[in-house]
Specification:
It is a single chain. This protein is of the alpha/beta class. The protein has three domains: about 200 residues, Rossmann fold; about 180 residues, 3-Layer(aba) Sandwich (Rossmann fold), CATH 3.40.50; about 80 residues, no CATH class. Helices cover about 40% and strands about 15% of the residues. It is built from 20 helices and 14 strands. The chain has a seven-stranded parallel sheet, sandwiched between helices. Strands 10-11-9-12-13-8-14 form a seven-stranded parallel sheet, with helices on both faces. Helix 3 crosses helix 4 and helix 18 packs antiparallel against helix 20. The chain starts with 10 loop residues before the first helix and ends with a helix. Bound molecules: adenosine monophosphate (AMP). The site of adenosine monophosphate has 13 residues, from helix 3.
């Protein structure tokens, strides 16, 4: 078996590795480090969790240990798709350079240009950046990339998903033709293949087994879930999530809950918090300081549930996550592997449970095909709950939920058969009808609410059968909405959540 000491790494780097507690190189490290140290281009096909970060940082540091940085002309460049990943790479550099004098700068959005400019002006050995921020600095004339000797592209497939490939091509064009390129991607989509053919020169291709085959320590399960009624599905799905969490009990010390959309990341985090679960969201629309704060809390164990989008959580290295919940089936099967890989790390046990609605079944088939095995089914924990109301379904708000009985302000004498309202998602409609029990919501609601009100009055004027509906009080209506869903509701939420 290869040992780190066989790899020709700088002795001070070896010392830092030893102090980090690593005994043997992982396959991607054993495969990528020797050609990288020979100055060759490397195409690493590996995903997060395989030790790929060290597979480029260790040889880079070894090579950079000789020579010195010049003002405004970094000697090496690492491009990462997200700020979090860039920050994590920077931490790796700190760990492995602790016995060397190398300088680095982290260029990511949400951090002031001034601070970053100061570092660049002094001259840095390693520049770690997200593509957009790097180009901003370059366009401001503060950064010259003509002295870059080593360029790393990390998680290229994610860059592709995020639309960064044109930026990457531009950045390649700004660096010297003679640079060495270390290029990492979890998958080789045709567009990635094209980029590597264009910008890499006779690379050493190092491919490590997909994590799918190495994730034996992760117990997987899925709940095939169908709402009792379409309009209740979203609310019931959140209830299923809570029941699944509860069923895990104390074994669930902490968890990442993945949603496909940023809107749902927010909604699920709010809903969980409302029900007393210690949860916070993380996704690309939150400002950097908030993201960092949330992550730090999750890492330190202060926060138990992190609701996340794929992009924000991609590559995050939190060593002891007991559970991963997939609130949605990811639309790319590979993302399932990335997501569940947040638990069961470094030989620990982990558990993952996914909720699959009928809409997700095609994506779910893709996941099982990729895994080449069936994921064990769990019973829908809601199945044993109260049956659906027998009265004909009203035409409710698009997502009118059923989690909690509202204190009705209706004067109807008929018994209340109204579907109850999940105050998280239905905050604006409730406010539009001036419900007194409005839950504490965030500032952003104000805009949605006031616009709801304005548009509400105009849509009321236009509604052709308003009087009929008013006469039909006490029918099976959604609280405060009458028997239709005014477009203003969707609009106000679109304002608030669209990303
Ligand atoms: P990465 O794939 O770079 O995100 O790394 C995943 C995790 O593996 C990180 O927590 C690293 O600190 C850890 N790691 C990297 N290399 C080794 C190694 N040779 N032995 C043990 N753990 C490692």
């Amino acid at each position: 078996m290869t040992k780190f000491s066989d790899l020709n790494l700088n002795s001070k780097v070896l010392k830092a590795i030893e102090e980090a507690g690593y005994e043997t190189p992982t396959p991607i490290q054993a495969g990528a480090i020797p050609p990288a140290l020979e100055g060759r281009d490397v195409l690493g096909i590996a995903q997060t969790g395989t030790g790929k970060t060290a597979s480029f940082t260790l040889p880079m540091i070894t090579m950079l240990a000789r020579g010195r940085a010049r003002a405004r002309m970094p000697r090496s460049l690492v491009l990462c798709p997200t700020r979090e990943l860039a920050a994590q790479v920077a931490e790796n550099f700190d760990t492995y350079t602790k016995h060397l004098k190398l300088t680095k700068a982290l260029l990511i959005g949400g951090v002031s240009f001034k601070e970053q400019d100061k570092l660049i002006d002094k001259g840095v050995d390693v520049l770690i950046a997200t593509p957009g921020r790097l180009l901003d600095h370059h366009e401001r004339g503060k950064l010259i990339l003509t002295d870059v000797k080593i360029m790393v592209v990390d998680e290229a497939d994610r860059m592709l998903d995020m639309g960064f490939i044109p930026d990457i091509e531009r950045i390649f064009g700004l660096t010297p033709f003679t640079r060495q390129t270390l290029f990492f991607s979890a998958t080789m989509a045709p567009e990635i293949e094209r980029i590597t053919n264009t910008f890499l020169s006779n690379p050493e291709r190092v491919e490590v087994a997909r994590q799918a085959s190495a994730s034996e320590t992760i117990e997987q399960a899925v709940v095939m879930f169908k709402g009792s009624r379409k309009d209740r599905e979203a609310t019931e799905k959140r209830k299923v999530l809570r029941m699944l969490i509860d069923a895990e009990g104390e074994k669930c010390t902490n968890a990442i809950i993945f949603c496909n959309r940023k809107t749902d990341v927010d909604i699920v985090a709010k809903s969980l918090s409302k029900y007393g679960y210690d949860a916070a969201p993380i996704h690309g629309d939150l400002d950097q300081s908030q993201r960092t704060k949330t992550l730090d809390k999750f890492r330190s164990g202060e926060l138990r549930f992190l609701c996340a989008s794929d992009v924000a959580a991609r590559g995050l290295d939190v060593p002891s996550v007991s559970h991963v919940f997939n609130f949605d089936v990811p639309s790319h099967a590979e993302d399932y592997i990335h997501r569940i890989g947040r638990t069961g790390r470094a030989g620990r046990e982990g558990k993952t449970i996914m909720i699959c609605t009928s809409r997700d079944e095609k994506n779910f088939e893709d996941v099982e095909r990729l895994l080449q095995k069936a994921i064990p089914r769990l019973d829908n924990p809601l199945k044993t709950l109260a049956p659906v109301a027998k009265s004909p379904a009203p035409k409710p708000a698009s997502d009118a939920p059923v989690e909690k009985a509202p204190r009705s302000r209706s004067r109807s004498k008929k018994p209340e058969t109204t579907p109850v309202v999940d105050t998280v998602q239905a905050a604006a409609p409730l406010e539009a009808s001036k419900a007194p029990e409005q839950p504490t919501e965030q500032k952003t609601d104000t805009r949605a609410k006031s616009s709801s009100r304005n548009r509400s009055s105009s849509s009321a004027k236009q509604a052709p059968k308003q009087s009929d509906r008013n006469n039909d009080r006490g029918g099976n209506k959604v609280l405060g909405l009458g028997d239709h869903t005014p477009t203003f509701i969707e609009l106000s939420f679109a304002d608030r959540y669209n990303s």
